[in-house]
Amino acid sequence: MDDDATAAPEPPLSPTLQRLWGRAAPGRRGPKPALSVDQVARAAVGLADAEGLEAVSMARVAESLGYSSMALYRYVANKDELLSLMADAAVADLPAPAEHDGDWRAGLEAWTRAQIDGIVLRPWFLALPLTTVRMGPHRVRWLDRAFRVLRDVDLTADEKLQIIGLLAQYVLGEGRVVVETQRAAASVVRHRAGLPDDTPESDLDPTALTEANPYHDFEAVLRHLATPDAYPDLFAALATAPPPADGPRHEDGWEDDFGVGLQIVLDGVEAFVAQRLASRGAADGG
């Protein structure tokens, strides 16, 4: 039977999706386009990398390419579409996580960490409106990688999507915490040292950055502001903690792991997988 005859008709695609996937209709008669959609997106990404997302505009991107703003509209409909193209182009630059054949948990951890690292390197990604982060080919490729990791796990596609969606939310949350705390600490250190706002973080004193971290004064809050009478359960829990030591406070060192939150999330995912597999086995009479 002819597969084409039975295939479902392609639904109408928005112009943005058509451009993301290289399906936009050819332009009108005239000179051959001097640029490509990918070149425009890459120029915008380069501008955001150098000056932040607030610096990106149709005029600035056009200028960086040596064209007028009006010329750019031949390739991109508006700024929102440009942001969609940027979001997908940024994902294209993420290095592929290491393969962990047979170990889906390690594979998901690598998949998640790679994306957090990408956000830390490109913090402007967090400022993109969610409505502009569309499912372009590079984002779908990352989705495909997650499904590859879970390929041999006997879950339904919907169950796998739930896991992947949970980890995607963790990426955004953890990425935001890391980026915003680093940004806040750097701003404080520059101000105290009388340095210009554009001083690179790599030029700042690491010890000063640590001390300027918004969470660094947690202990001071407990010692001088909070009281056991007002917060009895918090202080009761802290009273049972061992005193600080030179090494890890726990023999296995888990507390010092940057990704401890990710480990807790993956513990939950592992429990979910076990529960779903056991449920399916019981339903099959196993």
Tell me the series of helices and strands, N- to C-terminal: HHHHHHHHHHHHH
Largest sheet: none
- What is the CATH architecture assignment of the largest domain? Orthogonal Bundle
Q: Strand portion, in percent?
A: under 5%
Structural Rg: 24 Å
> Domains counted in the coordinates: how many?
2
Mean pLDDT: 85
Q: Quick one: overall form?
A: flat
Helicity level: 55-70%
User: How many beta-strand segments?
Assistant: 0
Query: How far from one another are the termini?
Result: 38 Å
Could you write a compact summary of the structure shown?
The chain is mainly alpha-helical and 286 residues long. The chain has 13 helices and no strands.
Task: Describe the SSE topology.
Elements: H1 3-6, H2 15-20, H3 37-51, H4 58-65, H5 69-72, H6 79-92, H7 104-121, H8 137-149, H9 157-193, H10 206-212, H11 218-224, H12 232-239, H13 260-283
Helix pairs in contact: 3-4, 3-6, 6-8, 7-8, 7-9, 7-13, 9-10
Description:
The chain is an all-alpha fold and 286 residues long. It has 2 domains: 11-92, Homeodomain-like (Arc Repressor Mutant, subunit A), CATH 1.10.10; 104-244, Tetracycline Repressor, domain 2 (Orthogonal Bundle). The chain has helices at residues 3-6, 15-20, 37-51, 58-65, 69-72, 79-92, 104-121, 137-149, 157-193, 206-212, 218-224, 232-239, 260-283. Helix 3 packs across helix 4 (58-65). The model has no long low-confidence stretch (mean pLDDT 85).
Keywords:
58% helix; Tetracycline Repressor, domain 2; Arc Repressor Mutant, subunit A; 2 domains; 286 residues; mainly alpha; 13 helices
